[in-house]
Amino acid sequence: MKKLFPIVWILSIVFSLNKSFAQQTIQINLDKEYQTITGFGGFGPKKVWWESAPYHDKGFLDVTIDKLGSTIFRTEIFEDLEPVNDNNDPNVLDESKLKFGATTGNGKQFPFLKDLNARGIKIIASVWTPPYWMKDFSDPKTIPDECYNCWNCPKPWSYPIPENRKMCGGVLRSDMYEEYAEYLVAYVKTIKKQTGIDLYAISIQNEALFPNPFQSCVLAQKPYADALKVIGARFKKEGLPQLFFGPEHMAEYSWGGNREYVNQLFTQSTSGKDYLDIFAVHGYLDGVANDFGTATGWTNLYNEITVKNGKPLWMTETGNLVPNDLTNGLKFAQSMHLALKFGHISGWVFWYFNENLVKDNLLTHTGNSMKMYYKHILPGFINVESSATDKEILVTAFKRNKGIVIVAINNGTTSKTVSLSTGKTTLPASFKVYRYSANETGELINTVMNNSFSLPAKSVSTLVFEDNTTAIEETLNSSNLKIYPTEVYYNEINIDYTGNNNLKNVSLISIDGKEIKNIVCNDNIPLILNTEGVPKGLYILKVNTDKSVKSEKINIR
User: Fold this and answer.
1) How many CA atoms lie less than 13 Å away from 5 in the CB half-sphere?
2) In this predicted model, what pLDDT tens digit does every residue of 344-353 receive, in sequence order?
């Protein structure tokens, strides 16, 4: 037996080498559709708001939007717009009491938000704390021991709470829900009036279970649902179309505190079904330490929130104090892979752009790794089923019209030779390969003609099959296609097409990719799609001509 050992050992090495050099396969099923992507992005301007203006420059916009590919920016709704109650009637707003000057927390943002809006960016906003006069500080469990914004505060704190500590913690008083609704209505209306911007979505409370040592407020599960019901009803009464996302609690992939948020929003009341459009989580363990997620955890969130309750999942903050190196670049690429593949998220928003994804108007390692997703998987792309024969290859795939984008992470320590298979679907003759690695920054590497390509060890590759009909698709716009209303209260969606191509069909798709309604078109234009019996929630309406397709987000109320 001793003489046989070297032979067995040699054979095992040969087998291992053959396996390493054998060509692997990435399998794509374009017919199995999941979520439609809303967008990817991050938080904030180039400089923090408490520094001096200007807070951004053209170079910052160019790198975050054009170079990185961001389509969503998240900002903060500051507490100083209504420093004292405007009056005792939440149904009568005294605008003279609102503070939106150029030196206020909100007013400082206007030039930045205007420039974002001019570039077609979706702007979402979160509240860190309501005005202090709306909060109660009687429960010590809701007050942090220290305050990062005030270095002279007592530690430990003691009653009465100093004025400069009231930004941190406390709870939203239940008798202030109507006033808080008025406050948020005032913010949205004033932003529109002074900048022309329609905010895409708002969150009524950032990290609602955490008394953070900075601007914060505790809004536990039942109070959150109760407050959302009041706020959502007020927005509906005012005719404001903003979407609501939240509760922006830690993802807690074991389920944790989110379980009770889901219970209060969807089981104990209809607040979530009626008014919460997007269930948003944060990728932290405690509000600071990064949590990169797990396949099992994201699957559980997806099943409970999207499958059972019909709400799309977003990650609206992750990535805090990220070192600029390959290790973290790969960690966040893998984290995004897990969220997209198993959580089927439709939106991903990093924490602060500056110093994390961008530094001195240049992309960092993590910025370049995120670019592999941000730059190529644009709003309207649909996640499709994908897999790899090698478990060290992590793959996600997306399609839009005839375009296909595949992101493949080689998590192993050896290079892989790979080919693609899409079953009966014929692939384009060639595709472009972009790559991020220790020495590559996500730029174009080559164009592959023979469907055989390499995935270097510890790298992220994005394969792009270009859609030559994209230019044609862009001709479908407000001048020849009108879809209304997009906020549906009365069971009818009108589709009026005046273009030159043949209108083929109109379909209503749920956020998990299921076709709910389909109309095969004839000469009867305009069309009316009846939504009676369709559950409330967010959907995608697809209008197909014989040469192009247009997707529109529809919210059935």
Assistant:
1) 3
2) 999 999 999 9
With CA atoms as reference, report the closest residue to 363 among 440, 290, 434: 440
CB atoms within 10 A of CB 269: 16
DSSP secondary-structure letter at 113? H
> Rounded to an integer, what distance in angstroms lies between the CA atom of residue 39 and that of residue 380?
8
3-state secondary structure of 165: helix
What confidence score (pLDDT) does residue 231 get?
97
The number of CA neighbours under 13 Å toward the Cβ of 330 is 18
Question: What is the tens place of the pLDDT at every residue in 121-171?
Answer: 999 999 999 999 999 999 999 999 888 877 667 667 788 888 888 999 999
Quote the radius of gyration of the chain (alpha carbons, Å).
Answer: 25
Which residue, chain included where needed, has tokens 């109320």?
557
CA 426: distance to chain centroid?
A: 32
Q: Is residue 180 classed as helix, strand or coil in its secondary structure?
A: helix
Backbone region of residue 245 per phi and psi (left: phi > 0; alpha: psi in -120 to 50; beta: other values): beta
How many secondary structure helices (H) and strands (E) does the chain include? 11, 29
In this prediction, residue 543 has a pLDDT band, given cuts at 50, 70 and 90, of confident
CA-CA-CA-CA dihedral for 311, 125, 43, 433, to nearest 10: 40
Q: Is the pLDDT of residue 277 over 50?
A: yes
Query: Alpha-carbon distance 386 to 361, whole Å?
Result: 35
Confidence (pLDDT) at 502: 76
Pairing of strands 403-410, 459-465: antiparallel
Residue-wise pLDDT for 231-273, tens only, equals: 999 999 999 888 999 999 999 887 889 999 999 999 999 999 9
* Closest by Cα among 453, 349, 438, 443 to 395: 453
DSSP string, 191-251: HHHHH----SEEES-TTTT---SSS--B--HHHHHHHHHHHHHHHHHHT---EEEEEEEE-
* Residue 395 neighbours by CB under 8 Å, 6+ apart: 26, 386, 387, 388, 406, 407, 408, 409
Q: In whole angstroms, what is the distance from residue 65 CA to residue 476 CA?
A: 24
What contacts 65, CB < 8 A, 6 or more positions away? 119, 121
Dihedral pair phi/psi, residue 417, rounded to 5°:
-100, 130
Cβ-count burial of 251 within 10 angstroms (0-12 exposed, 13-18 middle, 19+ buried)? Answer: buried
pLDDT at 234: 96
List the structure tokens of 433.
């390969």
Please give the domain boundaries of the chain with CATH numbers for all domains. 23-33+384-467 (2.60.40.1180), 39-135+176-379 (3.20.20.80), 471-556 (2.60.40.3080)
pLDDT tier for residue 486 given thresholds of 50, 70 and 90: confident
